[in-house]
Write a structure and sequence with these properties.
Mean pLDDT of chain B: 78
Largest interface: A-B, 64 and 52 residues
Order of helices and strands of chain B: HHHHHHHHHHHHH
Shape of chain A: globular
Distance between the termini of chain A: 11 Å
Low-confidence stretches of chain B: 11-22, 322-326
Radius of gyration of chain B: 24 Å
Radius of gyration of chain A: 24 Å
Strand order of the largest sheet of chain A: 1-2
Number of strands of chain A: 2
Distance between the termini of chain B: 35 Å
Oligomer: heterodimer
Mean pLDDT of chain A: 85
Strand content of chain A: under 5%
Structural class of chain B: mainly alpha
Structural class of chain A: mainly alpha
Largest sheet of chain A: 2 strands, antiparallel
Shape of chain B: elongated
Chain lengths: ~325, ~325
């Protein structure tokens, strides 16, 4: 296990290096460079040169990278002139709200997706299975923003069941104090996840149903209920852990659209607004924080997988 | 919009068991031919056998028919149903569906039915082209990485890991800010991210194929690595690649529609289904029910993506699971 952890950790360091490098290079490609975005299209060449020098953008890229990573590790993500706020404080304010939204969506999708997926596998090729399969495929094929807006149209505007906007507020507590307003965003956030988990559980359980260990369990006289929940369910759950890690970027993507549609005050909305303003430091900060979080998420998923499935550790 | 494709549907157990129990000596000639056991029968190619399994799947066949219908609608439709999609006509501002405009008009007077065809061309073209570019790059990269192996492979895959850890929607938005959005840049922007997943998949496939005897044999008879990859590994991985390509088209169309919603899609007078949809969504909360602005492009996106997903699912069955019993 120690060898596995060390190997995996070294891999992660390399990935972290590449991720930060890619992001910096990408954001450097923004039209006219970061200074042009700051001082506007009418600035003279001399002014741009002055600010380039002031902020160190005239140095070689590897020195800029080193300085930036050094600052980043100290929690200094730069300063957004357009928002008149440090990027670190912006992220500290927005990130917890986005995490709440993603977690709630994840919980809802797992709680619905796993049992329904198992149901589908047990009752395969019945009407219930076909209907749920249809819903899963709809989940894959419907753009998140369109689904969110349909929810608003049907449940907020037509039926007046829920407010059309997400809860507004500065703190997580304020967001959570208005659960009715959270219902639609969480459903929108969870739909794609539901499609993923239910579909995955269905095929995983069906795969497991024919394995030798299931036959052994049945031969020993275990009840069908015990075979399903004590053996198959536990084995299928292992791979869900890996899928969770891999699905992080998709969850983030979903969140961006849900936040925009419901005007949810999270990081996705802040990012889209920063893109519209070409707010260089904010784009850089949010992208890197999200990417680093994803790398760590994948690491945790891999470790979890290795803990649950001993075979992985020795490969 | 998912970057993780739906898992496949394993072959029914009973069928597999049944075939394994067949004793070739007791078969009639016709049965033997059906199972491909007759020695004189011409060996059927992988694609041919794949098609046979695919054709058994009614849902996939229906999807194929619907897709062909969608293509005809988008490309042949405008030849029959002429509309002006360049000059605005404010007299027709948000006109209701009528005999003259079966799906009404949008907020600058473009005929919605004609626009649906035009936008469909963009969506389908960008979707197909982005998928194609991503598949080609990802396949070559993945095959090379898996075939070379060792520390080169390890480093090449860390690049892929890093790319896949980036929040793709944010990268795509930044790229859209950098480049002026049009069909060509959209293809590039979507493919630049999508090839990563393909590379990882093909690399996995290559790893399992390169130790096979027939690939080793290439080396023995003096064939180079390029030959082993292009003539032996890729043809055997073609099933996986085609399946992935099918999902890639659906995902690309979804990403394009998402960009359209955020305002980074193709710009008017050009249109894609996503930008049409987001244009109509402006009027969603206006009180009046402008259903013809929203539902036609929304349904077009969903229908097209579902069809591609169903076909991809059936292809996966065809190439992977059930093929082995034939």
């Amino acid at each position: 296990m120690t060898g596995f952890l060390i190997r995996r950790f070294l891999q992660m360091l390399l990935v972290l290096f590449l991720v930060t490098l890619f992001t910096l290079l990408l954001v450097r490609l923004l039209p006219g460079g970061p200074v042009r975005a700051l001082v506007g299209p009418r600035a003279t060449a001399a002014q741009i040169a002055y600010y380039n020098r002031l902020y160190g953008f005239d140095e070689p890229i590897y020195i800029q990278y080193a300085k930036w990573v050094w600052q980043f590790m100290q929690g200094n993500f730069g300063y957004s002139v357009k928002l008149n706020q440090s990027v670190a404080s912006l992220i500290a304010n927005k990130l917890p709200k986005t995490i709440i939204l993603v977690l709630l969506g994840l919980v809802v999708s797992l709680v619905l997706g796993i049992p329904l997926g198992i149901y589908q596998a047990v009752k395969r090729y019945t009407v219930g299975d076909y209907v749920l399969t249809g819903i899963s495929f709809l989940g894959y094929a419907t753009p998140t923003f369109f689904f969110s807006l349909l929810l608003v149209e049907w449940f907020a505007i037509d039926l007046h069941l829920f407010p059309p906007f997400a809860p507004q507020g500065q703190t997580v507590a304020q967001i959570l104090s208005d659960p009715r307003a959270l219902v639609l965003p969480v459903i929108a956030e969870g739909f794609l996840g539901y499609a993923l988990w239910s579909r995955f559980m269905r095929s995983s359980v069906m795969d497991n149903l024919v394995q030798d260990y299931v036959r052994t369990a049945r031969a020993k006289g275990a009840s069908e209920r015990r075979v399903l929940w004590g053996h198959i369910f536990r084995n299928s759950l292992i791979s869900i852990v890996t899928l969770l890690g891999l699905s992080l970027p998709s969850l983030v993507a979903g969140t961006v659209f849900v936040e925009v549609v419901f005007n949810y005050p999270g990081m996705g909305l802040a990012f889209v607004q920063a893109a519209a303003n070409v707010d260089y430091q904010v784009l850089l900060g949010i992208t890197v924080v999200t990417a680093v979080a994803t790398v760590f998420g994948n690491l945790l998923a891999d470790i979890g997988y290795a803990v649950l499935d001993p075979r992985v550790r020795y490969s | 919009m998912s970057m993780i494709t739906p898992p496949s549907d394993p072959a029914p157990v009973e069928e597999l068991a049944e075939v394994q129990q067949v004793d070739p000596n007791t078969l009639t000639a016709v049965e033997a031919a059906e199972l491909g056991l007759t020695p004189t029968a011409k060996p059927r190619s992988m694609l041919r056998r794949g098609w046979e399994v695919f054709a058994e799947n009614k849902l996939a066949l229906a999807s194929l028919v619907v897709l062909i219908g969608i293509f005809l609608f988008c490309y042949v439709g405008p030849l029959i149903y002429h509309t002006n999609q360049v000059n605005t006509n404010l007299a027709d501002y948000l006109c209701k569906p009528s005999g003259q405009h079966p799906l009404g008009c949008n907020d600058v007077g473009y005929d919605q039915l004609g626009r649906l065809m035009l936008a469909g061309q963009t969506s389908l073209e960008v979707g197909l082209a982005a998928a194609f570019v991503a598949i080609v790059i990802g396949t070559l990269y993945g095959a090379l990485s898996g075939f070379v192996g060792g520390s080169v492979d390890s480093f090449m895959m860390r690049i892929v890991d890093a790319g896949l850890s980036l929040p793709y929607i944010m990268v795509i938005i930044i790229l859209s800010v950098i480049f002026q959005p049009n069909s060509l840049t959209m293809i590039f922007i979507i493919a630049v991210f999508y090839w990563l997943g393909v590379a990882r998949l093909v690399r996995g496939e290559t790893l399992s194929l390169r130790t096979r005897e027939y690939v080793q044999a290439v080396k023995v008879v003096g064939g180079g690595g390029g030959r082993a990859i292009t003539r032996h590994i890729l043809p055997n991985a073609i099933g996986t690649i085609i399946v992935q390509a099918t999902f890639a088209v659906a995902d690309s169309i979804l990403i394009l529609s998402g960009l359209g919603f955020l305002g980074y899609g193709v710009q008017p007078p050009a249109a894609d289904w996503g930008s049409m949809l987001s244009n109509g969504l402006t009027y969603l909360q206006s009180g009046t029910d402008y259903w013809w602005l929203i539902y036609p492009p929304g349904i077009a996106i969903i229908l097209t993506c579902i069809c591609f997903n169903f076909i991809g699912d059936a292809l996966r069955d065809a190439f992977e699971t059930r093929l082995q019993r034939r």
